[in-house]
Structures are given as structure tokens and as C-alpha cells.
């Protein structure tokens, strides 16, 4: 079947591709230590599952409003009020099949051919391809480790053109774990206030997997003058270990939300009714699951970062949030494996880890971060410890 031109501009998500490769190797009988996973290794909390079962039994198994049930929209409004002091009326909230779908529809609703979207790198793999799939042009702005992998006001100002439609701000970020401070958001906001044609798509999916003393700040709350230009996206996948339930949301300008709802009405009609009941229970129910899992993630983060930083060729900064480490492996590039193969780049390095030690990671170039690789610590401490030992062995074997 002939496929559309827009499909040729994009590729399958590398994390999905890596997961597929791990499954293949496992099916060949190999034991792979898998550090590629982009989802919590915990089960969805019981009270959330119970809410879904109750919804099924109560017959909540039909189409819901296009923009989600009023119960879930109220729960989302409640979270944003409580956490950030933000007030969103009902017409400014939409619910979709994961934050991924909400972001995709926001881009579909707003981009015309040639419109530019500023994507700070390292970036979540999907942003550039989502922009391309919707006829836009991603403008990648490198944010080096020396800047904490964060966009500076100077780099932002230099990247804005008349065609800039959006800037994507993922905080805390995947794959870096870096988060913008209130001061940093204010500085970016000052630049944005001077460019009223630029919208800001914030992706705050890791906001609760957060290791700071105070809540991760949100741009919409930090600079209310941007309120009619910020589209804030989030969801329940990461915070509540609900990746398979597929519920995410976006809040922002009413006209954008209406446009997204129109697109949703012609694509999925609405998100899953049962999953929406579960998501509402997650947002409004007890939050000890979040505190407990963050405590576990924090211990894993500290332990894994220490083990990584003990390996002479590797280094990583400690992330503020999320469950990833972005590891600098530049010192290993240019070296040779025992088989005599030269490690040309981060992809070769990741392949060396997989082939020689059966440790699966994702190479940094997939995230616009050449010279790095991503470790997910959403897996057990035993796996992480063993994997780090094997990574050290793989590095020691390089000459
Ligand atoms: N945004 C970022 C930065 C992510 O890492 C992910 C998942 O990997 C998503 C969005 C997608 O979340 P959802 O499961 O809600 O579609």
C-alpha cells in the first residue's frame, strides 16, 4: 500500500524500537538487563483499579463527552488549583488518550506547512517527529550539559523567528531529568513576552516524580501574563503507574481546546470511559502511592548515579525529577572493543553494552544528545546494580 508523504518524514519511536529489540533477544533465550523502559515498574494502585471495576459494574462503558467526563475534568482542575494555584474553567480542559495524543492533536490543530516549533535538545524523542507529521519544522536548540541541559533566554531569543508557532518546554525532562527553576522560567517568560506570536507547550508529565523540596514550578503559574499562550499537558501514566490506561490531559486557551476537541471528535470520539474513572480516582484519592514510589526512585537514582560516576569513562549529573539518567559516554568514543571494532558514536557504545554484556540502554542521539545514553531506573535495584557492574566491565574492556 502506498503511504502518505507525511509518513516518510517520521520514524517509529526509538524507545519502542529498543523495547522490541529487547523482546526479540529475550525470545532467543538471552537474559537481558533492560534499562530502556519508559514506564514505572510498579503496579497501578489498588484503589484506582477498584474505581475502574466499579465503573464497569455501574455501566460506565459508553462514549463520554469528547473532552472527557465532567468528573475527570473537575479532578484535573482540582489538581492544578491545589498544586499551582491555577484556575481553569471547564472549557479550557481536555482529556485524551495519553499526553502523547493530546500533544499530537495540539500540534495538528495549530501547525501549517513551514511553521516552526522550537524543541530544546536533549528532547523527548516524539516531539520532532510529531511536529514533522503535522507539516511543521522542528527547530532543535542544543542545550549542553554545562547549562544543566536547559534552554537559556539567550538561546531562546536567538531561535525565535516570525514562523515560530510553539516552543516545547518539558520540565522535568525526559531524558535529562532537568527541571526549570522559578527564576529560569521567569527569564524565559521575559523573552516570550516580547514575542506574542509564540505559544508554549509545557509537558509536565514527570511533575510528581520529583526530588526537590518544593513542587516543580509550572510556567503558567510563574508568569500569568502568558496564560492565554501556555498549553499545559500532563497525565496519569507516570505518576500513578498507569501507562496502559492511556489518559492524559491538556489545559490552555479555550479556542485551542475547542480545536483539539473537534479533532478528537473525528478520531477517537473520546478517551476510554473506564480509564477516565480510574484516572479521576488516582487524582482525587490518597496520594501515598506517589510519595512511596518517589522515595524508591530517589534511592535508586542516588545509588545508580554513584555506580555510574565510579566508572572512569562515564559521568552523569543527578536529575531533579523523572526516572532517567542521561550518562555522558564521550570518553569511550574512539576506543576499541576486544573484537577490534571502533566505537564511533553513542549508538555503537549502546550496541557494545548489549552485545558484550546484555545490558539494554537507549543511545543519546535518539534524544538529540550525541555522546550520551539513557538509563531508566524504573526497574529493581538488583537489576540496576548488576547492570552497572556489567557496564563497568564493558567499559573496562575498551582499549
Ligand atoms: N511526555 C514525555 C516527556 C514522556 O516521556 C512521555 C512518555 O514516555 C509522554 C509525554 C507520554 O505520556 P502518556 O503515556 O501520557 O502518553
UniProtKB/TrEMBL annotation:
Pfam families xrefs: Aminotran_1_2 (PF00155)
UniProt xrefs under SUPFAM superfamilies: PLP-dependent transferases (SSF53383)
Keyword Transferase carried by entry: yes
PROSITE patterns, sorted: AA_TRANSFER_CLASS_1
Keyword Transferase: yes
Segments forming domain Aminotransferase class I/classII large: 32-391
A single GO molecular function term of this UniProt record: L-aspartate:2-oxoglutarate aminotransferase activity
Cofactors: pyridoxal 5'-phosphate
Superkingdom of the source species: Bacteria
EC number annotated for this UniProt entry: 2.6.1.-
Keywords associated with the record: Aminotransferase, Pyridoxal phosphate, Transferase
Membership in a protein family: Belongs to the class-I pyridoxal-phosphate-dependent aminotransferase family.
Protein name: Aminotransferase
Lineage, opening ranks: Bacteria, Bacillati, Actinomycetota, Actinomycetes, Kitasatosporales
Amino acid at each position: 500500500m502506498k503511504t502518505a508523504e507525511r509518513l516518510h518524514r517520521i520514524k517509529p519511536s526509538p524507545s519502542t524500537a529498543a523495547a522490541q529489540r529487547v523482546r526479540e533477544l529475550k525470545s532467543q533465550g538471552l537474559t537481558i538487563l533492560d534499562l530502556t523502559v519508559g514506564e514505572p515498574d510498579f503496579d497501578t494502585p489498588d484503589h484506582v483499579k477498584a474505581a475502574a471495576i466499579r465503573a464497569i459494574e455501574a455501566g460506565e462503558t459508553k462514549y463520554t463527552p469528547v473532552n472527557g467526563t465532567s468528573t475527570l475534568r473537575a479532578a484535573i482542575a482540582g489538581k492544578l488549583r491545589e498544586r499551582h494555584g491555577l484556575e481553569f474553567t471547564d472549557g479550557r480542559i481536555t482529556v485524551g488518550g495519553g499526553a502523547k495524543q493530546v500533544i499530537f492533536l495540539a500540534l495538528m490543530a495549530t501547525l501549517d506547512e513551514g511553521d516552526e516549533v522550537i524543541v530544546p535538545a536533549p528532547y523527548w524523542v516524539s516531539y520532532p517527529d510529531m511536529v514533522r507529521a503535522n507539516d511543521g519544522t522542528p527547530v532543535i536548540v542544543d542545550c549542553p550539559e554545562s547549562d544543566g541541559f536547559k534552554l537559556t533566554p539567550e538561546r531562546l531569543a536567538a531561535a525565535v523567528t516570525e514562523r515560530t508557532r510553539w516552543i516545547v518546554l518539558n520540565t522535568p525532562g525526559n531524558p535529562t531529568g532537568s527541571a526549570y527553576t522559578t527564576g529560569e522560567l521567569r527569564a524565559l517568560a521575559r523573552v516570550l513576552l516580547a514575542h506574542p506570536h509564540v505559544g508554549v507547550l509545557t509537558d509536565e508529565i514527570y511533575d510528581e516524580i520529583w526530588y526537590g523540596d518544593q513542587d516543580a514550578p509550572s510556567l503558567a503559574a510563574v508568569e500569568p501574563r502568558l496564560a492565554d499562550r501556555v498549553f499545559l499537558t500532563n497525565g496519569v501514566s507516570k505518576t500513578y503507574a498507569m501507562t496502559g490506561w492511556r489518559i492524559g490531559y491538556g489545559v490552555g486557551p479555550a479556542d485551542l481546546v475547542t480545536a483539539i476537541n473537534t479533532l478528537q471528535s473525528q478520531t477517537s470520539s473520546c478517551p476510554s470511559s473506564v480509564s477516565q474513572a480510574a484516572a479521576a480516582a488516582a487524582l482525587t484519592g490518597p496520594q501515598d502511592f506517589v510519595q512511596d514510589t518517589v522515595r524508591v526512585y530517589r534511592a535508586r537514582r542516588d545509588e545508580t548515579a554513584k555506580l555510574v560516576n565510579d566508572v572512569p569513562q562515564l559521568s552523569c549529573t543527578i536529575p531533579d525529577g523523572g526516572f532517567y539518567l542521561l550518562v555522558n559516554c564521550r570518553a569511550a568514543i574512539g576506543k576499541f572493543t576486544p573484537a577490534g571494532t571502533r566505537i564511533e558514536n553513542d549508538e555503537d557504545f549502546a550496541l557494545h553494552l548489549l552485545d558484550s554484556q546484555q545490558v539494554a540502554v537507549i543511545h543519546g542521539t535518539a534524544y538529540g544528545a550525541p555522546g550520551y545514553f539513557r538509563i531508566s531506573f524504573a526497574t529493581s535495584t538488583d537489576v540496576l546494580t548488576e547492570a552497572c557492574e556489567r557496564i563497568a566491565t564493558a567499559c573496562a574492556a575498551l582499549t
